[in-house]
Amino acid sequence: MPVPTIASRASAATAAPGVNCPVAPPTTYAAGIARQAAARPAAATRIASQRSSARNNGRMAAVSQALIDFANQVRSQPGPGVEVTVTPRYHLTLQPDLPAAGPNSVAFIRCAQDEVDDMVGEVHALVAPRHLPLMWTLDPGTEPPDLATRLSAHGVVPDPHGESFDVMVLPATAGPVGGDVAGLEILDALSSPEAFRDADAVSGEAFRSSLARDTRGYPEQLERRRAAQRAAGNRFVLLATVDGEPAGTAGLTLRPPGGAILNGGAVRAKFRGRGVYRAMVAARLDIVRRAGLPGVSVWGGDMSGPILRKLGFVTVGWRKFYLDTSTA
């Protein structure tokens, strides 16, 4: 599927800032590190109650079941800079050049009660040599149901930056979600090492992490990340500036034919409340439309969730996050 390019510079007056019309074919790449095991059937994702509630607000009619399923079931894929291990008990994703919990995570856990300790030990054995923190991600189908309690015995705690997130979707047919922001430009953060460094610093500041400081100390690591994202062909990173000053950043991953994933949206505290976040949602949604995909999925937390709901996103599921620093 052709993937739209992002202009290196764009005016905030455009309907979707930062998006250019020319298209380029996605880069074909060999999978990074994928270890496949014969998977047993996973428990069905239980989202009926969320769907029913969402339909009551009149918006759900525009959301297809296919987009709902995509949002709740999409798995990470191996690619440049991304290593994936799949077993019958878990789905492990590692990004060694992005040393933060979240990008490095365990998800879709389907484990018998008497296998939890063994499963945790197996995951730790894979991750500890890489010295990466880890996020355990729980969903409605997680087994056993008391996994969070069992993980606590291994020092795994609720993510202090937010434990609960809504799985949210918006069809590509949704109306405008952004407006004009004075002095705003949305740039392609993958276009240069400097732009990518600025986007990374914004993310580190917005999420109050040490990631920006760490990666500035290792410019070769940061450049490997940028090169990997460019090589993947389906990933985008935006840098929003206001009057030339870095203000926000946001990521997007196209996953045809199911949809696209919004990730990494962040705005520096001094620029919040001006519509920068909404503008970045609009820019990414326009990329999705141009790629011919049916819609987007995102995980909305305490900060982003209320904004996303105002933009028309509806909740179709949930995730809970638990931080594991024993492998760092």
Summary keywords:
alpha+beta, 15 strands, two-stranded antiparallel sheet, 9 helices, 13-stranded mixed beta sheet, Aminopeptidase
Question: How is the secondary structure organized here?
Answer:
Elements: E1 3-6, E2 19-24, E3 33-35, H1 48-55, H2 65-73, E4 83-86, E5 91-94, E6 105-107, H3 116-127, E7 134-138, H4 147-152, E8 157-158, E9 164-171, E10 184-188, H5 193-206, H6 211-216, H7 219-232, E11 235-242, E12 245-255, E13 259-267, H8 276-290, E14 295-300, H9 304-310, E15 314-324
Parallel strand pairs: 3-4, 6-7, 13-14
Antiparallel strand pairs: 1-2, 4-5, 5-6, 7-15, 8-15, 9-14, 9-15, 10-11, 11-12, 12-13
Report on the architecture of this protein.
- The chain starts with a strand and ends with a strand.
- It folds into two domains: 3-27 and 173-293, Aminopeptidase (3-Layer(aba) Sandwich); 33-170, no CATH class.
- With 328 residues, it is of the alpha+beta class.
- The chain has helices at 48-55, 65-73, 116-127, 147-152, 193-206, 211-216, 219-232, 276-290, 304-310, and strands spanning 3-6, 19-24, 33-35, 83-86, 91-94, 105-107, 134-138, 157-158, 164-171, 184-188, 235-242, 245-255, 259-267, 295-300, 314-324.
- The strands form two sheets. Strands 3, 4, 5, 6, 7, 8, 9, 10, 11, 12, 13, 14 and 15 form a 13-stranded mixed β-sheet that branches. Strands 1-2 form a two-stranded antiparallel sheet.
- The protein contains nine helices and 15 strands.
